[in-house]
Design a protein that fits this description.
Urate Oxidase; 9 strands; 9-stranded mixed beta sheet
């Protein structure tokens, strides 16, 4: 039997560079260790390389081999962003015709949350790590989190305050000093933070930064008093999506003020609106800048 043609090496009909080719959404179990704590995660992995104009295709099966081999060699990593970088660097070793490799790992991360009175509940967070490796030796690495919280609309609150003050003039003075009814919605907050060489960014720190800015995370179990207290807290700090991204971006600038100038970050707030058929969205892309 004659060996089959190596079709990938042939010239394509249209000779154009392809910036990304590979696999998307490969699910595998990985074990991650951070600060001595081990977590078993089910990861969704993307891994891509570029190919030159004169090559018809990439040897995509290599990407799965690279991922499985890296996990076997290093079953416990110090973070998904570093494991992602391992994938990218090993890809350049195997794909000799590629100049850039990019990898992303997405996983659900569960934490126990203290509810007080001796009660705890389990909350799911989304974490991800992105890495890019270039043939010239340059690398880029990011870690990120996505947290589900809740926010209340300040505009509707002030409009409702005005309407109720006119309707109940005897209570107008009191209403100036307390939260008033408004619409509230689930809010997805995302942080994506660049990690400079020799520095660390802990995903848990990013989660806690979000939790200190908005009412999050949403808890699967709340008793009667807990529900009431949550509603009061949310309405005591009404926020636009713009307010949320600004506050979190300011806290990132403050927390990582000693990082190199130009360290990139992105903050996203997306509200699943309760009185509109669309979502509200705000995003800040900026860099750490020393004052």
């Amino acid at each position: 039997m004659n060996p089959p043609r190596d079709v990938q090496k042939e010239r394509p009909k249209y000779e154009m560079e392809v910036s990304k080719v590979g696999i998307k959404g490969l699910e595998l179990p990985i074990d991650i260790e951070r600060n001595g704590i081990k977590n078993h995660l089910i990861a969704r992995i993307d891994l891509f390389v570029d190919i030159p104009a004169e090559r018809k295709g990439a040897d995509i099966s290599r990407t799965v081999e690279i991922i499985e081999q890296a996990i076997r060699e290093k079953p416990v990593s110090d973070g998904i962003e570093n494991l992602s970088m391992d994938f990218a660097k090993k890809s350049l070793e195997r794909f000799e015709y590629s100049s850039t490799a990019t990898s992303s790992i997405f996983a659900d991360f569960f934490m126990k949350i203290n509810q007080g009175n001796g009660r705890t509940t389990t909350v799911k967070y989304n974490i991800f790590g992105d890495a890019t490796a270039h043939r010239n030796g340059n690398t880029e690495k990011f870690v990120g989190v996505k947290v589900l919280g809740i926010n209340a609309c300040p505009c509707a609150m002030e409009t409702a305050r005005s309407i109720l003050s006119d309707k109940f003039p005897n209570a107008a003075d009191s209403m100036e000093n307390i939260p008033i009814i408004t619409h509230n919605q689930r809010n997805w907050i995302t942080i994506k933070m660049e990690i400079p060489e020799g520095r660390k960014v802990e995903a848990i720190d990013l989660i806690e930064l979000i939790n200190s800015s908005v009412e999050s995370p949403l808890l699967p179990m709340l008793k009667r008093m807990g529900e009431g207290e949550l509603v009061v807290r949310v309405h005591s700090k009404p926020m636009f999506v713009e307010d949320i991204v600004r506050e979190i971006a300011f806290k990132l600038q403050t927390k990582y003020h000693d990082f190199p100038d130009g360290t990139r970050f992105k903050v996203i707030s997306q509200s699943e609106e309760s009185i509109h058929p669309h979502n509200a969205y705000a995003e800040i892309q900026s860099t750490i800048a020393k004052k």
